[in-house]
Amino acid sequence: MAILEEYLSKIDQPKERATMTVLLAWITKQYPSLVPVIKWNQPMFTDHGTFIIGFSISKKHFSISPEVKTLKQFKEEIEQAGYDHTENIIRVNWAQDINYDLLKKLIDFNIADKADFTKFWR
User: What domain range includes position 47?
Assistant: First the structure.
C-alpha cells in the first residue's frame, strides 16, 4: 500500500483521508493480487495490466470508476444502495456508508470479465 500512502497523504480533510484509507486498505486486503497504481492523480487497481477499478475525490463525494460495462451491469444495485451515478462513475457522498458487498461485486465482475483482456481499458 506504499504507493497509495503518498496519494492519501495529500488529502487535506482528515475524515475524507480516513475514509479513503479504509477503502483502499480493504481492497488491498481482499484482493492481494490486484496491483495498486496512481494514474491521472487517481488510485486505481489493475490485474495483469488491465484496469479493474479506480477512485477519485471531490469536495462533496468520492467517485468509484468501474467502467461503463460494469456500471450498466449493476445499475439497479447501485441505485438501491442510494448512490448517484453517471454512465462512467458512481458518486458516494462523504456521509454515506460504503457498500462493500456491492464494491466486491464490481471488482469480482471486472476481474472475471477481463481475465483474458490485454488492454488497459475496455
Answer: 2-112
What's the mean pLDDT in 95-107?
97
Whether 30 shows a pLDDT value over 70: the answer reads yes
Contact (CB, 8 A) for 44 and 113:
no
Q: Is 120 part of any domain?
A: no
Query: At CA 55, angle to CA 43 and CA 92, rounded to 5?
Result: 150
Q: How many Å apart are CA 122 and CA 114, to the nearest integer?
A: 8
User: What is the number of structural domains in the chain?
Assistant: 1
pLDDT at 3 over 90: no
Residue 19: CA count within 13 A, CB half-sphere: 23
